[in-house]
Design brief:
This protein is 0% helix and 46% strand. The protein has 93 residues and is an all-beta fold. The chain has one domain. A five-stranded antiparallel β-sheet has the order 3-2-1-4-5, with no helix packed on it.
Length: 93
């Protein structure tokens, strides 16, 4: 099992909406996308980071979160994951 906690290794700001079909909110808002290194020697993964694009930085502490990525036309919620900033020493949610 991998850790939920990680550090931002590198990032970019995705300032354009992916091409259709996509299930992103409208209107589209720029979002951070980062390579994050999972704690305790876990792998490096690519993910969105749920924060303001002006807040993200290299070595930022982030934690894995499950979120509703989108809702299908039939009303089914599709679970996805993202990372969000956290303060070291916080309790796991």
């Amino acid at each position: 099992m991998f850790e939920r906690d990680a550090l931002v290794h590198s990032y970019t700001i995705q300032r354009f909406a992916p091409p259709q079909p996509n299930a992103l909110p409208s209107p589209y808002a720029p979002r951070p996308v980062a390579w994050v290194d999972l704690a305790n020697g876990g792998p490096r993964v690519l993910s969105t980071v749920a924060c303001d694009p002006d807040e993200i930085h290299i070595d930022m502490n982030v934690r894995l979160n499950c979120v509703v990525g989108w809702t299908d036309p039939d009303g089914t919620e599709v679970v996805s994951f993202t990372f969000a900033p956290f303060v070291k020493g916080q309790m796991h949610a």
